[in-house]
Design brief:
heterodimer, A: alpha+beta, Immunoglobulin-like, 2 domains, 14-stranded mixed β-sheet, 6 helices, 14 strands, about 20% helix, globular, disordered N terminus, B: alpha+beta, Alpha-Beta Plaits, four-stranded mixed β-sheet, three-stranded antiparallel β-sheet, 19 strands, binds iron/sulfur cluster
Chain lengths: ~300, ~375
């Protein structure tokens, strides 16, 4: 009899352990993030919008990315706090995390603070690997960088933004004027001339990206997401808003009332984090409330 | 990590990718004894490739005064210090390469130079190692010394930059072994900047991507040497192709100097990248320093070079060919007093007389019975 009790206890113990292991392996957590449905105000959502007050906040723990090389072995930032809102057209996230320094520059040895949202292309899709997706199951990533925000605020890059006392005697395109100057200047920005969207003139602080595995991040054909940010007293608050449907053909994407998963990544510029040197969450269930739920949210 | 063979350290080593040598490998020999630090090379590169926005601080070619100079600041000392003391046994390197010494979670041992470290491109210029004390006189090697080290990207056989890029945005061209950053694919992670011990990849803050020396490949495709070679005032540089030691060709100038005479040596071979710019070491610098920079072959290379005018006329003649043609030299031939260079198609590029006729003007003109005032 004693043996039977012991075996039952052992089985329960093992099953509990299995559940833990299963959560880890699938990279999901059972804590839900609920995107409250709103009827107006999301189109021009701001940091201070009252709509955020009604959205429920979840805290997600951040783990160093220690699977793909180069890895992150440790980090100071441990947690991200998230709220979400949706309407019939958009899905917006308010992301908040503690970061003692505001790192907005991408120069030699200087790295930018950043945050990203990762979603499957649609709720119907089989859930991709939480680490950048996999070959047959891509993920969509919306990456905000403090450096992108800075670029929008300061306008076209020039040396004096980083080195106020620097002087350059001459750029070859200075001698040209009008359209030919613009054309010539572009030729000297090799990445831009080669069509790399990373070098484009920015209108948004968010890149819309797709990945199907490590090292396979690429730009989505359409760039739709917008971002706003604020760093105050050791805390970043960033809003990222994307259309429910990423492409105009409205293939894929989300609808109010659907459930899916979302994951987050955070980079601390002061710790020289960039690319795969990041902190990340597992997949978190995301419930987009629909019209029917509106009153409950 | 794969196991690959690196002939410069005479052993197999670990590298991120398997051994895959290009069909032909870009290579060059720089004779440090002839460099005058005029920086014409630096400026010719600058005006050709890096005069745009975000490139202000970049020098794909730089010339630094050793021992104190270095761009970025102390890059060489930093890398050697990180690697720690290591040993050679004969020509075999017994220490760890940068790939083998990679810390946990990293592909390569490296560091990011800071903003500041790029701010002194010609620090230590002309500074000698030590002070000139009373009673000192000229000896070989010099008691106090300095020399000029001209540097470009080494278009390494095992590039650290390429091995470090998690996106595979860096590639080595199969046709010439030139290492390039795909400007369309790069996302500016700067893993390459961190990994390259020679610090020859640079981050462009304006475009947000990393850029590097392209070995003037458009010129190379036309059979022309890179800009920093053709403009070199000191005629210290020769561009050609290198084979692996077992396939060395005696009439290939690079093979001849590197493999056959072993007078041209790689810079920091111990780091494991198999760099493809080879240096004839300076003859006036103390041995330990030369061994640290160019490996255990440095003392013998110095002796050979010093004696070549008496003992090795072929080598002495080949050195005369440097800077005498703007074209890539695939082969050379010495006949009597004339050394000739040939291109890939075996077309003759140039004939160079090895020694000029010498005329001695006596100080007294006996015909006119007058002393000569200017006899030089
Ligand atoms: S141009 Fe030639 S001689 Fe002048 S610094 Fe450069 S390598 Fe030296
Ligand atoms: S010298 Fe540096 S940049 Fe050039 S190929 Fe080697 S590792 Fe890459």
């Amino acid at each position: 009899m004693k043996w039977k009790i012991f075996i039952i206890a052992l089985t329960i113990g093992l099953l509990a352990g299995c559940k833990d292991a299963a959560t880890k392996a699938s990279g999901t957590t059972s804590k839900n993030l609920v995107a409250a449905y709103v009827t107006e105000g999301l189109a021009d959502i701001s940091m201070s919008s009252k709509l955020w007050q009604d959205a429920q906040e979840i805290k997600a723990s951040l783990e160093p990315q220690d699977i793909a090389m180069p890895k992150l072995m440790q980090s100071q930032i441990k947690e991200i706090r998230v709220k979400a809102l949706c309407d019939d057209k958009k899905l917006a996230f308010r992301l908040e995390w503690d970061d003692a320094t505001q790192d907005t520059m991408q120069e030699n040895g200087l790295f930018s603070d950043a945050v990203a949202i990762q979603l499957p292309p649609s709720p119907e899709a089989e859930l991709p690997d939480p680490m950048m997706g996999q070959s047959d199951r891509p993920v969509h990533i919306h990456l905000w960088k403090a450096a992108y925000q800075r670029q929008i605020e300061l306008g076209d890059w020039n040396l004096r933004q980083a080195h106020p006392h620097a002087s350059v005697d001459h750029y070859p395109f200075d001698a040209a004027s009008g359209e030919s100057k613009e054309k010539m200047e572009k030729q000297y920005k090799i990445a831009l001339a080669s069509g790399n969207p990373i070098s484009r003139n920015r209108t948004s602080s968010v890149d819309d990206l797709v990945a199907n595995g490590y090292g396979k991040l690429a730009f989505l054909p359409q760039q739709n997401s917008m971002g706003w940010s604020q760093w105050q007293q050791g805390k970043w608050t960033v809003i990222i808003s994307r259309p429910l449907s990423q492409d105009s053909s409205s293939k894929g994407g989300f609808k109010p009332g659907q459930s899916t998963f979302v994951a987050f990544g955070v980079w601390n510029g002061a710790e020289k984090q960039i690319g795969s040197r990041k902190m990340r969450t597992v997949w978190i269930p995301l419930i987009l409330k629909g019209k029917a739920h509106e009153s409950q949210s | 990590m794969a196991r690959v063979y690196n002939w410069q350290i005479a052993r197999k080593m670990s590298y991120w990718y398997g051994e895959s040598r290009p069909k032909r490998q870009f290579a060059a020999v720089f004779d440090t004894n002839k460099c005058i630090a005029c920086q014409t090379c630096t400026i010719s590169c600058k005006t050709t490739w890096t005069s745009g926005k975000g490139q202000e601080y970049m020098f794909w070619n730089n010339v630094e005064s050793k021992p104190y100079g270095g761009y970025p600041l102390s890059y060489d000392l930093k890398v050697l210090d990180m690697l720690g003391s290591q040993n050679w046994k004969g020509n075999t390197y017994q220490g760890q390469t940068l790939f083998e010494a990679a810390p946990a979670g990293e592909r390569i041992l490296g560091y990011y130079p800071s903003h500041r470290e790029y701010s002194y491109p010609n620090i230590g210029e002309d500074e000698i190692a030590g002070t000139v004390d009373k009673g000192m006189h000229l000896t070989l090697p010099n008691m106090v010394w300095m020399f000029y080290l001209a540097r470009i990207c080494n278009h390494c056989t095992y590039p650290a930059c390429l091995g470090a890029c998690p996106r595979g945005s860096i590639y080595k061209r199969p046709e010439d072994g030139i290492v390039l950053v795909d400007q369309n694919k790069c996302r500016g992670y700067r893993e390459c900047v961190k990994a390259c011990p020679y610090k020859k990849v640079f981050f462009n803050s304006c475009t947000g991507t990393s850029e590097k020396c392209i070995g003037c490949f458009p010129a190379g495709e036309q059979g022309t040497q890179p800009r920093c070679f053709t403009e070199c005032i000191g005629k210290i540089r020769l561009r050609g192709w290198i084979n692996v030691p077992s396939q060395a060709q005696e009439n290939n100038p690079i093979d001849y100097l590197v493999h056959i005479e072993k007078v041209a040596l790689p810079l920091f071979p111990q780091l494991g990248l198999e760099p493809n710019v080879y240096y004839i070491p300076p003859i006036h610098v103390p041995e330990p320093y030369l061994v640290q920079l160019f490996g255990p072959g440095a003392p013998a290379a110095v002796e050979k070079y010093k004696a070549c005018h008496e003992k090795n006329w072929k080598m002495a003649s080949l050195i005369q060919l440097f800077g005498c043609t703007p074209h890539v030299v695939s082969k050379f031939e010495l006949e009597g007093n004339t050394i000739s260079a040939f291109n890939d198609k075996a077309e003759k590029l140039v004939n160079v007389p090895v020694s000029e006729p010498v005329t001695i003007r006596e100080p007294f003109d006996t015909k006119r019975a007058v002393p000569r005032m200017n006899i030089n």
